[in-house]
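SAMPLE LOG
Freezer: B-3
Tube label: C17
Construct: single chain, 155 aa
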Amino acid sequence: MLFLLGSLLLAAAPPATQPFDVAAHKTLLTAHAVGAQVYECKAAAGGALQWTFREPIASLIVDGKTVGRHYAGPHWALDDGSIVQGKVLETAPGATPGDIAQLKLSVVDRQGSGALAQATLVYRLRTHGGTLSGACTDAGALRAVAYSADYLFAR
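STRUCTURE (predicted):
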């Protein structure tokens, strides 16, 4: 079901320009992500309830095959045993208000000796979907919003 949603999201995504210095770095791997951005209903500083980003959950796909996953941290883990964790350096808006931001992240931790072992940067590009709007009325409630993006791993 998520694959179908991601395919529909990808088909509807308008072309986007490159918001970051991607060409200045050597690309190690590009993977398409299909999944969800998970939000939690929490009390803000003043006590009012609001949706707060909790975590991403996504499959990483290369040439039509799932090669890994993306999850909280943020982390990207490949089936080859390589894992990287990122920290946001820069943001750029998505193509529409419903699209999560595009990101440039520095790799702050890595494990394994696979395809991501030399990665120093992660770019989240061509985002589609993933933003949540609407009232948050039940503290602790979770809501997942389908999204897709391309993740480019570079050094």
